[in-house]
Write a structure and sequence with these properties.
By secondary structure, this protein is an alpha/beta fold. It is built from seven helices and eight strands, in the order H-E-H-E-E-H-E-H-E-E-E-H-H-E-H. A six-stranded parallel beta sheet has the order 3-2-1-4-5-8. Helix 4 packs parallel to helix 5. The longest helix has 26 residues. It is globular. The two termini are 37 Å apart.
Length: 213
């Protein structure tokens, strides 16, 4: 009797797990992952080091592994600076290379951009449309520049956006001679793009995203 009960209980748990996994997979249909500018210059000893870049990259890696395991589209954005006076992400430098933690696989799309907005003068929009993508999961660097501008542009193009907050990073800023700490910049930008009921994006952390919350 006990063995029969155990078998029924185990079967029930397996069934619940399968239903949950299928529901999560259906939820992610027509969804792509954007990894924006996770490049060496943003890491320690780079030319534009960010606060907690390595921690953010580790979280991006977790999300990337989820997308790969579920055969979902992944798009890597790589910034190459072409403007006069640029100090980082310079062409043909190690600093401009995508960091080893999130190196693209052969079947993953790489889009090179020259402006903060990943859609500007790139084929990102046409690629997403060709894949019938309707929703984006956005990660990357810097939170208040390329991540924010890309997220707002994606909203204008009709995409539903989720930003993984702890899979982004920035650095201290200065306003009228006053230093604004990176943590405060991070919170303000994420609060801004999620204002009005998540108008531009829904903000979630890595663990909650992976757990389907």
């Amino acid at each position: 009797m006990k063995n029969t009960f155990k078998i029924i209980l185990t079967s029930g748990l397996i069934l619940i797990s399968m239903i949950t996994m299928n529901a999560q997979k259906q939820k992610m249909e027509n969804t792509a992952l954007l990894i924006i500018d996770v490049q060496n210059d943003y890491f320690p000893e780079g030319k534009m080091t960010l606060e907690k870049a390595e921690q953010a990259a580790q979280n991006i890696l977790k999300v990337l592994e989820y997308f790969r395991e579920n055969n979902l589209p992944v798009i890597h954005i790589q910034h190459i600076s072409t403007n006069d006076g640029a100090a980082f992400f310079l062409p043909d430098t190690d600093g401009a290379e995508i960091n080893h933690l999130v190196l693209p696989m052969e079947d993953e799309k790489i889009i090179v951009k020259h402006f903060p907005n990943s859609f500007r003068e790139t084929d990102l929009l046409s690629f997403l449309q060709s894949k019938k993508i309707k929703s984006l999961v956005i990660t990357g660097m810097m939170t208040d520049v390329c991540v924010e501008s890309t997220t707002r542009a994606a909203f204008d193009f009709g995409f539903s956006n989720t930003v993984i907050g702890d899979a982004t990073a920035t650095r201290n800023r200065e306003l009228n001679g006053v230093v604004v700490k990176a943590a405060d910049v991070q919170k303000s930008i994420l609060a801004g793009i999620s204002a009005l009921g998540g108008l531009y994006a829904h903000i979630i952390n890595t663990n909650d995203f992976l757990n389907g919350k």
